[in-house]
Amino acid sequence: MAQPALVWFRDDLRVADNPALRAALDSGRPVLCFFIFDDSSPEIRPLGGAARWWLHGSLANLADNLDKRGNRLHLFSGAAEELVPRIVSETDAAALFWNRRYGPEREIDARLKKRLRTEGLEVRSFPGRLVYEPGTVLNQGGGYYKVFTPFNRAAVAQDPPETPLPAPRELPRASFPKALDALSVTLEELALEPRGPDWAGGMRETWEKDGAGRGEDAAHKRLKAFIADHLSGYAKNRDRPDLDATSRLSPHLRFGEITPRQAVHAALAAKTDGAPAGDYDSFRAEIGWRDFSYQLLFSRGGLHTRNMNDQFDAMPWREDDSALRAWQEGRTGFPVVDAGMRQLWHQGYMHNRVRMIVASFLTKHLLIDWKAGESWFWDTLVDADPANNPAGWQWVAGSGADAQPYYRIFNPMTQGEKFDPQGDYVRQWVPEIADLPNRVIHRPWEAKREALEAAGVVLGETYPKPIVIHEDGRKRALAAFETIKRR
Ligand SMILES: Cc1cc2nc3c(=O)[nH]c(=O)nc-3n(C[C@H](O)[C@H](O)[C@H](O)COP(=O)(O)OP(=O)(O)OC[C@H]3O[C@@H](n4cnc5c(N)ncnc54)[C@H](O)[C@@H]3O)c2cc1C
Predict the structure, then answer these.
(1) How far, CA to CA in Å, does 159 sit from each of 154, 253, 464?
(2) pLDDT (mean) for 160-178
């Protein structure tokens, strides 16, 4: 039996546009595919609950797609650095291929590459996660861009990315040695989905309705539907949480079920067919934010553990567990904030505009460290992303590389009125105030007594009074910022 080529799947749970899988096929060797659920290596940030739920569906679909091609996905659980050499030696592999990662896990990859190459194995890694890898879009001085706009301008000037690779039709399967049986696990044994209690009902309802789901097949359905129904108008509507106007590709991209270049190519084809250029540019820019965040993760490291701008190390954050809990549970008394936090809890997702509003509210109105919000998002988002999540939080908090131009404090009332003008989003998620008139739906404390009575709202009983007075919170945040600005 020929020595196999191994493919180590990580954040690239797909068969199409997968350079590592393609290289294995092109090697002419039988192919053995595996995934390691590694929750124990210190370089790995353990997945949060919602992302674990997503991963289950993603792996199930990858296993199906490999099955259809005559192959199989083998699962393991444990520290990659111990397991990979075992798998290599037990299978008597000749080659090992993977697509690259950009966070601290790449130290594991570098050590493994060095060690296994010394032992004579062919080990190759490929770019498969981004449109442009860190280091390929650099400023004129050859350094990393610190600000998004020039980064994106330079990236877009390099467009278009290479044509995505098609999925292989067949994948000759390598035999699986008996000695590995004892080490391998089933998907059920990974216990990624919650049991007792099963809190994933809202996520299933959201992501699995209309035959959609998790995994590569669903990702392509979603991309197709987005291009057909929402790309035209995206630039104008993408900020509206009350409309279904964005792609919702984020968890699919997070787990590499689809590549950003597949998304960019599909949007580009739509542009050629007449979709407005402004809408394409706007969508391309959002995908560009993702590359930019990964560039930050790669070049700076520690994105979720420390302030990019170290002035913020002296920020006088408040410890306030009851305010943090009210924020987490959607009980702040600010309707758009509460709507967002409840959407997050139910769906494992929140609209981008609302992510900015709730993040600003936590870090400014409540003056709570962005790391507390980031870690709540990490646990509750199905798309919890090691680059986008901390980069998004630091951008809003003001501690990021490309922070908002000045110390901006989002006004939750005017943001709500602008981006949820009829209050539909708030009414969906905060039904206890649904009968208030539009005029006060984003500021119920200003409603007249008769309006509250007619809507059955008793502030402080059926819906909370604001946990902070807007103007007080704003002033306190500005004063805190003044103390670090002077340093
Ligand atoms: C505080 C905060 C936390 C965030 N946490 C995450 C996270 O954990 N995971 C995540 O994928 N995104 C995160 N984002 C970015 C953004 O909110 C989501 O990517 C977006 O809402 C996903 O919805 P969509 O797929 O419909 O986006 P679309 O508008 O359809 O955008 C297409 C894709 O572009 C990428 N993208 C869009 N906006 C951004 C952005 N601002 N930064 C980086 N990439 C972007 C995403 O991959 C997205 O799927 C965060 C933003 C903020 C402000």
Answers:
(1) 9, 19, 50
(2) 95
Instruction: Note if 286 is an active site residue.
Output: yes
Domain enclosing residue 5, as ranges? 1-128
Strands (E), 10-63: 31-37
Within-domain flag for 180: no
Query: For 356-413, how does the pLDDT look when each residue is reduced to its tens digit (9 = 90+)?
Result: 999 999 999 999 999 999 999 999 999 999 999 999 999 999 998 765 567 899 999 9
Same domain membership, residue 141 and residue 283:
yes
- pLDDT tens for 316-359 read 999 999 999 999 999 999 999 999 999 999 999 999 999 999 99
Strand partners, 74: 34
The answer, yes or no, to whether any atom of ligand 1 lies below 6 A from the CB of 131, is no
* Helix residue ranges per DSSP H, 139-239: 148-157, 178-181, 187-190, 201-207, 216-229, 234-237
- Is 352 marked active-site? yes
Side chain identity, residue 3 = Q
- Who's near 395: CB < 8 A, 6+ residues apart? 402, 403, 404
Kindly give the distance from the C-alpha atom of residue 190 to the centroid of ligand 1, in angstroms, as a whole number: 28
Kindly tell me if the per-residue pLDDT of 487 is higher than 90. no
Give yes or no: residues 470 and 405 share one domain: yes
Does 337 lie in the same domain as 372?
yes
Q: What is the CATH number of the domain that holds 344?
A: 1.10.579.10
Residue 141 tokens read as 């001085």
What's the gap in Å between 433 CA and the centre of ligand 1?
29
Tally the domains of the chain: 3
Q: Are residues 271 and 414 in the same domain?
A: no
- Catalytic position from the list 257, 286, 374, 417: 286
Is residue 162 scored above 80 in pLDDT?
yes
Task: Specify the pLDDT at position 169.
Answer: 97
User: Can you read off the two tokens belonging to residue 438?
Assistant: 């539009």
Q: Is the pTM of this model over 0.85?
A: yes
> What's the average model confidence in pLDDT over 124-147?
95
Whether 389 is in the pocket of ligand 1, judged by its Cβ within 6 Å, is yes
Which is catalytic among the residues 53, 207, 327, 370?
370
**pLDDT at residue number 403:** 58
Distance 351 CA to ligand 1 centre (A): 8
Mutate to test the pocket of ligand 1, among 223, 239, 250, 289 (most ligand atoms within 8 A of CB): 250
* CATH code of the domain in which 290 resides: 1.25.40.80
Atom nearest to 383 CA in ligand 1: 9
Cα distance between residue 446 and residue 437, in whole Å: 11
Instruction: Work out the average pLDDT over 121-125.
Output: 98
Q: Is the domain of 474 the same as that of 326?
A: yes
